[in-house]
Amino acid sequence: MYSAACPSRQALDRLADKWSVLLVGALSSGPHRFGQLRDQIDGISEKMLTRTLRSLERDGLVSRESFADRTVSYRLTPLGRTLQEPMAAIRQWAEQHINEIEEARLLSDSADDGD
Question: Could you tell me if 52 and 42 are in contact, meaning their C-beta atoms sit under 8 angstroms apart?
Fold first, then answer.
């Protein structure tokens, strides 16, 4: 994984992306339509949502289903569902430690201002 040529590094790049983490979380509760995902994940543009969903689909983590009424639904694949627990742990860690992170940033920024 630490070698630049290691193929698993590409998977890590995908999984370390904040939009991927949030989409896996959103899809953990079941299938969602594009508009539902866009509305649930504040701050994601339609372009970024499309790009991330396509990448997750290409990696076999998300499946896309089209319906006769031209709506599309996305769901986690069995492989994608294996990410639910580790991604939930990452989201939970971020929520639990955000105050400490913000304090560290303030300290660092104030130290930088003194230079």
Answer: no
Query: CA–CA separation, 35 vs 93, rounded Å?
Result: 28
SS (H, E, C) the chain: CCCCCCCHHHHHHHHCCHHHHHHHHHHCCCCEEHHHHHHHCCCCCHHHHHHHHHHHHHCCCEEEEECCCCCEEEEECHHHHCCHHHHHHHHHHHHHHHHHHHHHHHHHHHHHHCC
Domain 8-113 sits in CATH at: 1.10.10.10
The answer, as to whether pTM is greater than 0.85, is no
Q: Can you read off the two tokens belonging to residue 8? A: 């698993």
Where on the phi/psi map is residue 42: left (φ > 0), alpha (ψ -120 to 50), or beta? beta
Cα separation, 97 vs 22, whole angstroms:
17
Strand partners, 75: 63
Under a CB-based contact definition with an 8 Å cutoff, are residues 84 and 24 in contact? yes
What is the band of 74 on the pLDDT scale with cuts at 50, 70, 90? very high
